[in-house]
Amino acid sequence: MASRMELTRQILFMATQVLAEHPDGLPVSEMWPLIKKRLPGVDEQWNAGGAESNTPELALQWKSGGLVKSGWVTKAHRRWYLTPLGRIALKRHSDVSSFTAGSHAGYHYWEQNKAGFEAAKRLAEAVPEGSWVAAGDLASQTGLEAAKLVGWLQGERPEGWHRVLDADGGLPDDAHADERLRKEWQGLLTEDGLEALLGMVPQDRRISAADLHQLVIDDPVIDDEPERPRRAWLVRGSNVHGVNLVGDWLAEGYCSLPASKLRELPPGAAQETIQAAVDVDYAHGSYNDRLKKTAEFHAFLSRMREGDLVLSNDGGKVYLGHLKGGPAFRASVSNRANLQRPVRWLNPKAPLDFADDLPDEIAAKLATQHDVLDLTEFVEELERLIEPGPSRPPVTREMVLPDAGAELADELLVDQDWLQECVELLRDRPQMIFYGPPGTGKTYIAQHLAQFLAGGKPENVKLVQFHPAYSYEDFFEGFRPVQTADGQGVTFKPLPGPLLRLVDAARQHPEEPHVLIIDEINRGNLAKIFGELYFLLEYRDKAVDLLYSSAEGTGQAFTLPKNLIILGTMNTADRSIALVDAAMRRRFAFVELHPEETPTREVLGRWLAGRELPADAAHLLAELNARIEDRDFKIGPSYLMRAGIYQDAKGFERVWRTQILPLLEEHHYGDGVEVSKRYGLPQLRQRLGLDQEPTP
């Protein structure tokens, strides 16, 4: 029976499906009966969960906050509406587990950035009628991701939400506005006196990044916000045009970038503004160099905030400090340091040791070639390095895999020692492949082991299936077509695949195991699918530049978190596909599941005994496999482990005739073997002295 938590997840999932069928929205009173039709018995299951402190209908209302914060649902005039982002989420997350994980990720981002969203709310409310602000500018001033900000605005709808637009004055692409939302949005803009021409409102009504920055300065609540999450940054200075500036930084209390050709831009400038300036001022540089500089200047001008941690290294010496103010353009020798920020360096005379003091994951990030690098995911570890002391609670970031329990072993019908060996293999190297003939329970065991390792949290487990057409873009990250805001065309945006989404979730909860199951792993072109990730499978403590994200100049070196476990399955009987190459074999532990070897050999007998069924089926399967000469084509027990085939006298024969014999026909195609005579049930029963079928 489902727990109340599981029921709540199902209710929220069904609620969005109901809203998808009612574009004009529904009040909760009308929505709840439709949800109940899709979840028969939900009230009874809920009441069986304990004291009736609330009802499932109340749970729907209380727990819908994650849908709103993610921008998937909005509520207005006592009605609920599914937003265009919500419709995209339903297509992307087709099951309860995936949908819940996506919603939780959106809510977690909001929770981690409450101060930024509160600041965005106040600034949106401060935009006067007849004016508008660019989403990129608002995101830069509040320290939020523009896409997350636009989504949140669609869900929460604070006053002035409709005045947050793209830099060109159109509806934000990140809103994925449909016809209904476009009409509503443009109607509100028209009421404000912002008439759109070709979908764009006038540029002269835009509040500039500098004016928006002044609003932030003038708002004491925003300016004095104590709860804003601190970020951490690497800024390199040991080799700026061949000169080491770190000593000067420490002595004078600053860090800098060599923006020698960049025009003066205001603090908080939007990325689009910086990109346009770089394209002109650095026109002589390559495309990739301009992207890299845009990302670095944007981080330095707009994303960094006073109080953020900053790190720099001089060879093996590592220095940490706090940013003490905003960016400024200043004169410097040879223009090597003309874009500066003041820093209070914390350990100028006692540097940390790169090799001995830094955690491996941070050291891996620093080994990349970026001059500015976002290290916020490691802010807790860096704070521990600069604020040691017994009063500071330790930060637990290491995953601990649980020992295999007897309950799981009994459920899987395998020996506990064998299961524990699988856990030990994953502790040594978090990648493993179950391989063997069909019907040996490879996927079944992988799924149950994954759920066990993940502590029963479905959002921590993801299953994908490889096939010949599967690619890096499907698996990890790639450009995908998305509809433009006006609905009249298509643009391409980089979208994460299942691996990158699970990696992001694993980074948010580094102490929790996250498991990716790759079914039929050898059916895909592994070198094509994994790309540069091949390297990270063997070296989790190293970082690589990504094919797409790094090419965009985002300054994000990528590592595979140590709490990401990969379980693969491989069917050895399918000769139409290649087995994995030597490079992949070196990166995975391989565990065989074979009908004639432990633990698979004993599974069917245990299953039959547990249901008080005769052992005839196990004997017949053993005799069948004894007659199959090719080891990779022997038949696994899963075909005979369905209770329904033992309900009547013909069930067992039907499975044998329609599922097992066709496999063997294919195996012996063209070699003259009469499959029915060699492997038929009458012949096997006669050989074993069994006169009738296994009885119910």
Automatic annotation (TrEMBL):
Record-linked CDD domains: AAA (cd00009)
All residue ranges annotated as the AAA+ ATPase domain in the record: 428-598
Molecular function as annotated in GO: ATP binding; ATP hydrolysis activity
Domain of life assignment: Bacteria
InterPro entries, sorted: AAA+_ATPase, ATPase_dyneun-rel_AAA, Methyl-DNA_Rec/Restrict_Enz, P-loop_NTPase
Pfam families: AAA_5
The protein's name in its UniProt record: AAA+ ATPase domain-containing protein
Lineage summary: Bacteria, Bacillati, Actinomycetota, Actinomycetes, Streptosporangiales
